[in-house]
Amino acid sequence: MENQTNDAENVNMHEEMRRAFALLSGKWKLEIMWLLNQRIYRFGELRKAIDGITQHMLTAQLRELENDGLITRTVFAEVPPRVEYEMTAKARALGPTMEALTQWWNEYGKSVPVKPSARGRKPKAQ
User: Fold this and answer.
1) Tell me: the pLDDT tens digits for 87-121?
2) DSSP type of residue 79
3) Helix (H) or strand (E) holding 14
4) For a surface tag, which of 26, 57, 77, 82 has the fewest beta carbons within 10 Å of its beta carbon?
5) 108-124 burial by CB neighbour count: b if 16+ within 10 A, else e?
6) DSSP codes joined into one string, 43-62
7) DSSP characters for 84-112?
8) Which domains are seen in the chain, by residue range?
9) Phi, psi of 86 (to 5 degrees)
10) Whole-prediction pTM value?
């Protein structure tokens, strides 16, 4: 990719895209965002929905996504406390990108080799 600079604003698009990719980089962030694009989740629901993620890693990834303004965390004053996570409007704007990825996967996903997961906690045997 060429380092494109918009002279009107003196913006290096290569660097800007690097920043954009960093928002969603990491093993779990895209999967978390995919789930939250479907509906609001509680912490325990997310942990159960993502095979192999540890509690520590889920907490860290959720904090980063919240700090980047992509998700909101709502704590309800109940006993025990209830915490819900949902996408912000900024993150919902990524919807067309997620739809394009879904369309791409439907067309080419079967040609992608399955790789065994070697990281994270092992799913419990049923």
Assistant:
1) 999 999 998 998 999 999 999 999 999 887 655 55
2) S
3) helix 13-24
4) 77
5) eeeeeeeeeeeeeeeee
6) HHHHHHHSTT--HHHHHHHH
7) EEEE-HHHHTTHHHHHHHHHHHHHHGGGS
8) 14-99 (1.10.10.10)
9) -150, 160
10) 0.78
Tens-place pLDDT, residues 34-86: 999 999 999 999 999 999 999 999 999 999 999 999 999 999 999 988 999 99
* Bridge partner list, 42: 84
Cis peptide bond prior to 80, omega within 30° of 0:
yes
86's tokens: 């949902």
Alpha-carbon distance of 12 to 87, in angstroms, equals 28
Q: Which residues contact 122 (CB under 8 A, 6 or more apart)?
A: 52
